[in-house]
Amino acid sequence: MLAGELSAVLGDVRFGHQVEVGYFAQEHDNLVPDASVLDNQRTATGADDGTCRSVLGMFGLRGDKVHQPAGSLSGGERTKLSLAMLAGGRHNLLLLDEPTSSMDQGSEKKVVAALQEACVGKTMLVVTHRNPILTMVDRVFVLENGAIVADQTPQQLGIKKT
């Protein structure tokens, strides 16, 4: 509902003044497959090439990789590009649905670090079941059968910052 993918069953969803929502979809439907990695980043963010390359680099997309068509990237690389496009954009509220589910633990830790660095001053709502990404959040809401059963800090849940 927050991403506009579903209609609210009861009530409505309204964001505050000047809230710009960015949504990470697991399907990477925001990528233009025939456009280069750099072109995708530039189009999504409106930033200059240097800024685009800097953000892409935070997510491990460097060198000649930025000139490859987005459609030729691996699943993990497409995820990194999608996240870089959100992180480098003008969005100040990021909705991230299982952003690291297709990554190995090493890649996941690097992406978490990149999100922390690139998203300073932004609010993120993250849906995940993976602990490494939980180390970067302030609050954890645990849902069971559609109801919040826990509202705690990661530390209260035994999740240690790495």
Give the helices and strands, then pairings:
Layout (H helix, E strand, L loop, with lengths): L20 E4 L12 H9 L3 H10 L16 H13 L5 E5 L7 H14 L4 E5 L3 H4 L5 E5 L2 E6 L10
Parallel strand pairs: 1-2, 2-3
Antiparallel strand pairs: 4-5
Helix pairs in contact: 1-2, 1-3, 3-4
The CA-CA distance between the termini, in Å, is 32 Å
User: What is the approximate shape?
Assistant: globular
Query: What level of helicity do the residues show?
Result: 25-40%
Number of E strands: 5
Main features:
162 residues; alpha/beta; three-stranded parallel sheet; 5 helices; 15% strand
Description:
With 162 residues, the chain is an alpha/beta fold. It is built from five helices and five strands, in the order E-H-H-H-E-H-E-H-E-E. The protein has a three-stranded parallel sheet, with helices on one face. Strands 4-5 form a two-stranded antiparallel ribbon.
